[in-house]
Amino acid sequence: MTDYPEKTCQIDRLVRHPKLVAAALSGQKTQQRRDGLYAYPGETFELEGVTFVVTGVDRQRIGDMSEADAQAEGYPSLAMYKDLILKMHANMEWNDDGLVWVHRFSRWQPE
Hints:
By secondary structure, the protein is an alpha+beta fold. It has one domain: Sulfate adenylyltransferase (Roll), CATH 3.10.400. About 25% of the residues lie in helices and about 25% in strands. The chain has 3 helices and 4 strands. The chain has helices spanning about 20-25, 65-70, 80-90; strands at about 30-35, 45, 50-60, 100-105. The radius of gyration is 14 Å and the shape is globular. About 15% of the residues are buried. The mean pLDDT is about 95. This is Fructose-1-phosphate kinase.
């Protein structure tokens, strides 16, 4: 690990909502955006007994998020992602310049 700050939360809190856990297990969800850093590349976590590995972590402006990114988050569209995020976080405003950590992951494949 290089050039990453200290984590702000534990990796086991990266994907928590049951619908998003199901989306990750089905292969539809391969990214998770968070305000803080929850994992470093190469770390693993489990969802319902299935191991996932973090394949990449980087900073991104929330305004640079694409339709494909929203789908990788497990949502059908960017508009739905934005709507649900704003509903989940009361009093939050969508700030295109706000920075988030993008955690990319996949099912762990033993060698």
